[in-house]
Design brief:
Elements: H1 3-19, H2 23-26, H3 29-60, H4 69-98, H5 100-131
């Protein structure tokens, strides 16, 4: 292999190494939050369709007897509940995307609380087992 072929091979491998993501960079918290944004957007669309579907059922049964419009009201209530829940989740995700350090501290705190709860649960189970 001549000198120019070796240089081309080296630069080709270098470019491949630079472009290829490493496993640590492949899926960060911010990219997971962006994927969650897409899921939230789809669910917001579904919530709006659910609400307006219930509204359509409500108005379509307006002059009928028995009208059974209570089912339509329940559908609209579910649509509104899902809509507000998803809006709150979207606000939380947006906050965590803007402040990733805060997000990592919150996630670490949640993990610590879960581990402390599991530890407490295991020790209480052992004490109950010793008492019996």
């Amino acid at each position: 292999m001549n000198s120019s072929g070796a240089h081309r091979l080296f630069f080709g491998l270098f470019a491949l190494a630079v472009v290829t993501p490493t496993p640590a960079e492949a899926l960060t918290f911010v990219s997971v939050a962006e994927l969650f944004n897409i899921f939230i957007g789809l669910m917001l669309t579904a919530a709006l369709l659910l609400f307006f579907g219930g509204l359509w059922v409500y108005f379509s049964r307006l002059g009928t007897w028995p009208n059974n419009r209570d089912e339509a009201i329940k559908i609209m209530e579910w649509g509104v509940a899902v809509l507000f829940t998803l809006i709150i989740l979207l606000a939380i995700v947006q906050f965590f995307q803007r402040y990733p350090k805060v997000m990592s501290m919150v996630v670490a705190g949640i993990v610590i609380l879960i581990l402390a709860g599991i530890t407490l649960w295991v020790t209480m189970a052992k004490k109950k087992k010793e008492e019996h």
